[in-house]
Amino acid sequence: MKASRQEKEKNVFNELDSIFLVAHQLKAPLAKIKWTLRMLIEEDLGAINEEQKEFLENAYQASERIINLVNDLLDISRISKGNEYLDLKKVDLLDLVKKEVDFYKKEGEKKNISFIFKKPLNKEKFIVKIDFEKIRIVIDNLIRNAIKYTPKGGKIVISLKKRKKEIEFSIKDNGIGIPQDQQDKIFRKFFRADNGKKIDTTGSGLGLYIAKSIIEAHNGRIWFESEENKGTTFYFTLPIKS
Amino acid sequence: MKKILVVEDDKFLRELIMQKLIKEGYEIIEAKDGEEGVGKVREDKPDLVLLDLILPGIDGFEVLARIKSNPETSNVPVIILSNLGQKEDVEKALNEGANDYLVKAHFAPDEIIKKVKTVLGE
Fold first, then answer.
1. Prediction pTM value
2. DSSP B96
3. What is the ipTM of this complex?
4. In this structure, what is the dihedral angle of CA atoms A116, A119, A122, A128, given to the nearest 10 degrees?
């Protein structure tokens, strides 16, 4: 007997709920593993030799990788639960971006990275109908990448533009950029450019895949411009419903 | 020597972080649940509290509220150490007076020490 569309949706929701719950539960034991490995490496639990340190360091990196994957699982289960189901609400995007910039400014300060938010001079609002949590995941992801791949003393410029039918968000960094021959793979699941992998060995390569998924579910577009060693600018648009 | 209260119900994690704190030269007080935590903040007047959110009995948010609403203890800085990482939880804790919010899976003990030192102005 064919399951009705409602039944199918309900099953998907339940599955995604389970994924979310399990992913959430994984974080506690992962924290224990991470803490123990780290303290062993730092010799807080007794002296160890260089060889032991190397093995433990490997295990620690592996645990970091798992934690990143779990975080992405959490994100995916939240977004998939909904690319059929978006919790759409009217939001002032300017407000959301401002809050995100304030939050990440501190992260940037650690690397002496300056954050500039170019908002329009007039008091116009940037009202869009979006799934707040999911768009926040996208912005978080783009900002975190910009910080990650921009060296100390760098500059990140975020801007919001309003057009007749859409709002455009952009984030420009002067970081390591994306090699030309790898640009067409950037949005693929698990893909990480070689120069990015050198800087961060534990990323999952799912962030941009998730971001694209969310933006397209909102009928927006996401793209980038990049030149190796010069920097990258990521853009996305969200439609303004009339 | 600065005094730090650790409120954490998981014995293993509590002992790990306490070991690290002792190594860094802090005096340690421990509490296994929220009620005990609130009591010890009042009695022992620590210089900082490391507070888990998921606790048996009253939860970390309740402990935070009680610490901050008592004029005798409201000045004690609190760093949340939690496995919950949702933005709503972080915002709620910061709005209710926590100085920082660290997700255990994202911060190893040595990184927590750095945050402790920052809050204590060391």
1. 0.67
2. T
3. 0.90
4. -160
